[in-house]
Write a structure and sequence with these properties.
With about 500 residues, the protein is α/β, with parallel strands linked by helices. It has helices at about 45-60, 70-85, 90-100, 105-130, 165-180, 190-205, 220-225, 240-250, 275-285, 305-320, 340-355, 390, 405-415, 430-440, 470-475; strands at about 10, 15, 25-30, 35-40, 135, 145-150, 155-160, 180-185, 210-215, 235, 255-260, 265-270, 300-305, 360, 380, 400-405, 420, 420-425, 445, 460-465, 465, 480-490. About 40% of the residues lie in helices and about 20% in strands. The protein has a 7-stranded mixed sheet with strand order 14-15-16-13-12-18-19, sandwiched between helices. A 6-stranded mixed sheet has the order 9-8-7-10-11-21, with helices on both faces. Helix 2 (about 70-85) runs antiparallel to helix 4 (about 105-130) and helix 2 (about 70-85) packs across helix 6 (about 190-205). About 50% of the residues are buried.
């Protein structure tokens, strides 16, 4: 099955625009290693033009066209975008699959979630209208007070390659619902569907400059966006190292940031589980999206009494996973995104082996696939807590395993990490699940499952996994500024100073 990559330019001020320096970046299909198209490469000059366009969009008609329009007005555009995304689902899913390597069925699921997320934030945009001028109770009857929620301004949105259109939507939809003007900079490794979002916005008549999309390299486009004095906020999803740089740049002008960064999430499997159900959730939690999820539950903690039997079951499940070109029917594991990522994953596996760990299964290229950045689903045992494979994010289909004897030991091992994004606990004892959930140091805890995600529920972590929450009402609050308005309502003078003589 073949599909052409549309040849697009940058999307600025409602129009396609060639990059100032006329550079482009090749698009490589990670399944075939073939160049299948290219995307424009923005630089600081393009960022400048996009920021100007976004500021004009906010100021146009004294803000009445967008920033200070009703939430219901903005909701109409969000719903129109959702409808167009749904109409183009099949095409967008195929573009996503050949661009980042995720299985086609998974990509189709993502596109459904994209449309659902725009719909959800359309509802919240409408709800904003009723929340304006919310009264604040005061202890003095001579004053009355209310709160206004206003868009924070121009926002820079920098997104990753593992869920190209969905991660962009997690930021774009609430930013637009709030009345902000946005500049989206997707990852250069997977930008194709984000440029198609631009085409959708053009088709629905989104006001010019409200959403601008700049593809390009991080240092050339992302960095000038993060440090731009007229960008009021940055929201970033990606690596902890890049997040730290963005935070440093934003700190120079006291710019707020929301950061969703790396992870090394644990999954705790207790001895009372149904082995097959637990095995499927364990492999789904780490091999979904080809293992390239910051919340992947990539550290398995399994109770000693069932460890041998459970690992045997896991290996059997792994050997049943269809590894293929993402476009093949039934594919459940595609390639990692790039040659660089493939090299990184293989090096981490090799290092684990040299440090004394055991490769229980996988650990190599699938024998039937001679091309593409494929890695077999890999399980590594005999791991110590000092090993690189236990402590560092792999971002590939690799699960490392340790055993525990007691609940307290499991919790201690689970929390022994610099990250704090997700965690999962699997047990039939719901009281135990509740105890463990409270003890786990993570922003998201899954009970008897791993990785479900809903637009309505908050998403984010703590420690080096970042701060702030996306999705749900929390996602909208990211892009709103709260203004207190207090009015003196008494007819009496304030009377603090002695009145000057009236003579």
């Amino acid at each position: 099955m073949s599909i052409a990559i549309p040849c697009r330019q940058l999307f600025i001020d409602g129009e396609w625009r060639e990059p100032v320096k006329k550079k482009r970046i090749p698009v490589i299909n990670p399944s075939t290693e073939q160049i299948i198209g290219d995307i424009p490469a923005a630089t600081a000059e393009d960022v400048e033009i996009a920021v100007d366009a976004a500021r004009r969009a906010l100021a146009r008609n004294k803000g009445r066209d967008w920033a200070s329009a009703s939430g219901a007005h903005r909701a109409k555009y969000l719903r129109a975008i959702a409808a167009k995304i749904t109409l183009r689902k099949s095409e967008l899913a195929k573009l996503e699959a050949i661009d980042c390597g995720k299985p086609l069925d998974e990509a189709a699921w993502d596109i459904d979630d994209v449309a659902g997320c725009f719909e959800y934030y359309a509802d919240l945009a409408e709800g904003l209208d009723a929340k304006q001028k919310a009264p604040v109770s005061l202890p003095m009857e001579t004053f009355k007070c209310h709160v206004l929620k206003e868009p924070i301004g121009v926002v820079g949105l920098i997104t990753p390659w593992n869920y190209p259109l969905l991660m962009a939507t997690w930021k774009v939809a609430p930013a637009l619902a709030a009345g902000c003007a946005a500049i989206l900079k997707p990852s250069e490794l997977a930008s194709v569907t984000c440029l198609e979002l631009a085409e959708v916005c053009k088709e629905v008549g989104l006001p010019p400059g409200v959403l601008n999309i700049l593809t390009g390299l991080g240092p050339e486009a992302g960095a000038p966006l993060a440090s731009h004095p007229h960008v009021d906020k940055i929201a970033f999803t990606g690596s902890t190292a890049t997040g730290s740089k963005i935070m440093t740049a934003a700190a120079q002008i006291v710019k707020p940031v929301t950061l969703e960064l790396g992870g090394k999430s644990p999954i705790l499997v207790f001895e009372d589980v149904d082995l097959d159900k637990a095995a499927e959730w364990t492999i789904f939690g780490v091999f979904w999206t080809n293992g390239q999820i910051c919340s992947a539950t990539s550290r398995l903690l399994v109770q000693e009494s069932i460890a041998t039997e459970f690992l045997d079951r896991l290996v059997k499940w792994c050997k049943n996973i269809k590894i293929s070109d993402p476009m093949e029917e039934g594919c459940r594991l595609g390639p990692v995104v790039s040659a660089g990522q493939h090299e990184k994953v293989m090096k981490l596996i090799s290092t684990a082996k040299s440090e004394g760990a055991t490769i229980l299964c996988g650990g190599a290229r699938p024998q039937h696939l001679k091309k593409g950045y494929f890695v077999e689903p890999t399980i590594i045992t005999d791991v110590t807590t000092s090993m690189q494979i236990w402590r560092e994010e792999v971002f590939g289909p690799v699960l490392c395993v340790k055993t525990f004897s007691t609940e307290d030991e499991a919790i201690e091992l689970a929390n022994d990490t610099q990250y704090g994004l997700g965690a999962a606990v699997i047990s039939k004892d719901l009281d135990r699940c509740e105890r463990v959930t409270k003890a786990l140091q993570a922003g998201i805890v899954w009970v008897n499952c791993s990785q479900p995600c809903f637009s309505q529920a908050p998403w984010g972590g703590n420690k080096r996994s970042g701060f702030g929450r996306e999705l749900g009402e929390w996602g909208l609050e990211n892009y709103l500024s709260v203004k207190q308005v207090t009015q003196y309502i008494s007819d009496d003078p304030w009377g603090w100073y002695q009145s000057p003589s009236k003579l």
